[in-house]
Amino acid sequence: MAGRRSVAAALDTRAAIVRCAADIASVEGMEGVTIGRLAAELEMSKSGVIGHFGTKEQLQLATLEYAVDLFRTRVWDPVSHRPPGLDRLLAICESWTRHEDKPGFPGGCFIAAVTFEWDGRTGPVHDALVVTTERWRGVLRREIETAVAAGELAADTDPGQVVFALEALAVGVNPARQLHGDDLAPAWALRAMHAVLGVPAPSST
Amino acid sequence: MAGRRSVAAALDTRAAIVRCAADIASVEGMEGVTIGRLAAELEMSKSGVIGHFGTKEQLQLATLEYAVDLFRTRVWDPVSHRPPGLDRLLAICESWTRHEDKPGFPGGCFIAAVTFEWDGRTGPVHDALVVTTERWRGVLRREIETAVAAGELAADTDPGQVVFALEALAVGVNPARQLHGDDLAPAWALRAMHAVLGVPAPSST
DNA sequence: CAACTTAGCGAACGAACGTTCGTACTTCAA
DNA sequence: TTGAAGTACGAACGTTCGTTCGCTAAGTTG
Question: Which residues contact B101 (CB under 8 A, 6 or more apart)?
């Protein structure tokens, strides 16, 4: 297996395409990613780009998968070793807002951008996005329920309400930074998360 | 002045185009609005559509303006008569979440969608969006500062932090509804807003 | 009634879109 | 040494994009 490049280069090529697509999509959305633009940016031919995926939709799904992996690596993995409960939930909030602070994409968090771009559409990308965010919501929900059961959060805490609020606050960091240059937005989000959880905010972050 | 339709019809036409564009954009974003699609949907020619605006960018700006007017009518006007302070701030939160509940667009709140679509880009539409959201933030900020001065909110309240949180929670209603079908999202957002403000939540909404 | 303005149409433009095809070339397996 | 597999290319496809042009028709103004 080879072409103008070696096997290793071929695998690298696919990864490079996906990474480039995610970079563009974080700024202009997934619909802003065109085969021709990727080809120009990577100095390849259009057919060389799309050949790795077949269709543009498959490329979009691969790009989403890449961003999800990155999210897990940067947000979940650092806290996964902790015991479930309030402690880990707060650690998630910290790594999450830290991730939104420096999301690894030029246009802010990829998932946040794509969430708003695809929430009203239909099709495989929408569905994959639903599955992904649903899974993350499940993680948060279980953490909250554990904390409630342990008496670390108020007994009348509504897990759905708290999950919604945490998600909205984390995602909201993006437009605050991109649109208004709010460098403090991650800290603000973290503080608001504590308020929603009904636990005292840390004195400094 | 006339064509195939009367003067009144011509003014109606422009308004109809903008309304249709806003409907489409709320679902698929402003880039999803194409001249050809508007022409097909309105049973006009492409040149008849774009003739009212000159360029697509002007159409986008007109669409944004329309959505902003609608937002003001539905969120600000119902509470503008009240005296400034916590009471009006809470009234804003209520009309705001009510607006996000039934935003008047098929794809949810137009401004929320466009905010995430354009936050990373440059150009007149981005700039107009910044001006618009900045103005709304100013309204919220003044309300908060008034409430703090009156002792209705804690003296150490950070207006920027609270404004950020209110905005994020309101905007977050959209993907929650579109992606997960959370009909309770508006109520959840309102409850979280109270938590962020540090005031007791209303027993029922 | 004539002159002017303007809404809207239909056709066309160059560019970009996603996709398909045949081909060249390189590496691995037989 | 030959054959299969696979990467990437270049060219072309039909479509759609935003925009421009000349034209018709209706209403306003003189």
Answer: B173, B185, B186
Interchain CB distance below 8 Å, A182 and B164: yes
| Model confidence pLDDT, tens digit, residues A47-70 | 999 999 999 999 999 999 999 999
* Residue stretches of chain B with pLDDT short of 70: 1-11, 203-205
Residues with CB under 7 A from strand C: A 1-4, 6-7, 33-37, 46-47, 50-51, 54-57; B 1-5, 7, 9-10, 13-14, 39, 43-49, 51-52
Q: Please give the Cα distance from B190 to B170 (Å, whole number).
A: 8
Positions of chain D reached by protein Cβ under 7 A: 5-12, 16-22, 24-28
- Supply the DSSP symbol for A107: T
B175–A119 CB contact, under 8 Å: yes
- According to CATH, the topology of domain A57-197 is Tetracycline Repressor; domain 2 (1.10.357)
- Of A202, A171, A184, A179, residue with least CA distance to A75: A171
Domain ranges across chain B: 57-197
